Model the fold of this input.
Amino acid sequence: MEIKAIIIDDIKNARDNIKLDLESYCPNVSIIGEADGVVSGAKLIKETKPDVVFLDIQMQDGTGFDLLEIIGNQDLKVIFTTASDEHAIRAFRMSAIDYLLKPIDPDELVEAVKKIEKSNSLSKDNFDILHQGIQNHQTITRLALNTLEKIHIIEIADIVRCESSVNYTTFYLADKTRLMVTKTLKEYDELLTPLGFIRVHQTHLVNAKLVKEFVKTDGGYLLMKDGSTAPVSTRKKQAVVEALSLI
Done:
């Protein structure tokens, strides 16, 4: 199936590199246009109606988000491209939206195209989480969890704890819902620790605000407000005590 694509980036060399890689590694992608900014990009999208847009975030006349707001709701799939920005990358992970890090790795480009063939258009919820995270990563209040069945948009405050099992992470929510995602606990540790979560064990990450008690007997464990428990490793005990004292 042919995929009609356009590239929007204010740096010509970046556009040329993506175009060359697509021609070399993704023969089913047909480049039908290029633009170097928000205004020209929005016009090009409306004129060509592409299947997918390779969209830069920061451009001379605005951002990729400005462009998406201009074009409104369209049946459009977006692959964002971004420079190595820690906050931006964290926001992408929070929103469960795929992105390509510049300079773009051809293997990652191929995988992104494969995903875009199967995925739905960018949802407003995912977009809002991403936009919020790019603007100010400390104000993020929701998280997108990509399970085998669907993408779930959840409130971070409703996460009681996370538990790992090899390369999977199970989220336990306040309403007793359980969601399993195919990502490691380490990745969610990096995302949620700045938002009030504590890594209390190799296999457990907990919401500090939903801890009811720290029971120091029986090896040490946390009793959560939903009635569940999470073990506390010996080397984490002091850090847990200090973290809980700050709540």
Remarks:
- The mean pLDDT is 91.
- The CA atoms of residues 92 and 222 lie 31 Å apart.
